[in-house]
Amino acid sequence: MNVAADNSQAQVAPAAPPAAPVIESADVAAPRESAGSRALRIVVPTGMLVLLLVIWQLYVTVAHVPHYILPSPTRIAQALWSDWPVLGASLLVTLKITFTALALALAGGVLLAIILVQSKWIELAFYPYAVILQVTPIVAIAPLILIYTPTTQVALLICAFLVAFFPVLSNTTQGLKSTDHNLLNLFELYGANRWQTLVLLKIPNALPYFLAGLRIAGGLSLIAAVVAEFAAGSAGAGSGLAFRLLESQYRLNIPRLFAALVLLSVTGVLIFVVTSLLSWLLLRKWHESAVRREN
Amino acid sequence: MTVRQMAALPRAAIVHAGSGAAGRPLVSLRSISKTFSNGTVALQNLDLDVRAGEFVSLLGPSGCGKSTALRLIAGLGEPSAGTIEWPGAARDAAGRPVREIAFVFQEPTLMPWATVFNNVWLPLRLKRRPKSAVRDDVMQALAMVGLESVADSYPRELSGGMKMRVSIARALITKPRLLLMDEPFAALDEITRFRLNDDLLRLWEQFGWTVVFVTHSVFESVYLSSRIVVMASRPGRVFCDLDVDAPHPRGESFRTSVAYNDYCRKASETLHDAMMPAASKP
Question: What value of ipTM does the predicted structure carry?
């Protein structure tokens, strides 16, 4: 080993940099997106939507497409307005199922994930059943659940819950288990108890995973609420949007069918926006997924 | 509060013993062996005494068990054989010695979701000390490493060297009797490493802690240490003990001196001998 050579290197190297710490790539210091490009982000998708609607309207008008085949956008809007008492009530039913199922899935998924990671034995005993419930198509379980439950609404709720529950469980479990080993060592060194390790280390570490699970579960609970209603074949008053879809189809009330579809997509988009916003708000300070990359 | 002001604090009055430390050791490892579950023998019959005020470097090739030894001292894992004694330490209710230690890992090991302040607060927070009560202590620890201005930043906003400084501040906040450092600067560039070496040495000279520092750099170990413990691998054991009697404070003049050069050559040769097949004690 050449001691002298390294020594001479040592001589020149440590020119002390300025003491004032330099914050690199700080989020706050990032140059703001110009107002023009921000406006474009709103104008482009909106313009595209308007353009598509105009083309649709023109096509239906010019080609004289009958409304029971393909209604025009204005006709759909009309149906949405005039059928609102019926559709609104059904939307409320679907929303109730969706959000109750989502809330139960979040609470249940997080709670079970926390219990699962407490011991290898608990995980070995319970995780397979969570997987079985997940991989079995709910449409297949729905008839059985219908037999066991007092009302169709409860059956739908259980179906939607079963579907939304798994992504929350598996993501949160993964997040709780992927805690940095050195940080776990650090907590052990400083005498942290189980509760402190869970609350101060494992849960914050699992947050990005949980939020990814939440975004999946939010969309899935709406899908499951609709699919389960199809499978359960609920009918009459107090039914959700899925029944309105089928009913409109039987009656060839295609504008109303489209209107129900519009309500479902808007609901889905809103769920996506709200969960994404929540995720961004919670992670924007520290997680790579929520921080803009700058090169 | 600046570092210079820190020097005026009563703790600075503690005289550090340097290499000539006598008296009973702070921690002593007796015939420590450690075999991992996959059958790897990491350490065999390791004896090591660390006396109060010493700056001991564990120097050796990778795989010589120096990090394992450090982790055992920290209480992360149990030795397969042998004992670790803390002669002067108080006992807890269960009769175990209370190790007043702090650990600095090779990676900064910061919680990315917590601000710099909250990361440094962590050891005290785990002892249920409220934020308001320890605000000054945390800011003081940050001042020691020159980072009080970034208390509210998140780790991802800092450079590698700054993250390591935060990690050191977090270790200092508990005022440990023994500071354990596991190749803390190995992942940093040379300029940053030299700066942190200087800062660490300056803090040690001021406050007189005891440090056990794991490194594979001969130059780093000579520059920092009052004693270098050269280790050999397969199985991991102590090969040779080298005293570095150069006076403190050490700085640029030491790093470029003939004496430093001589110590480096001696340590290099010893390390070289330790890495020879079938190395035996010189």
Answer: 0.83
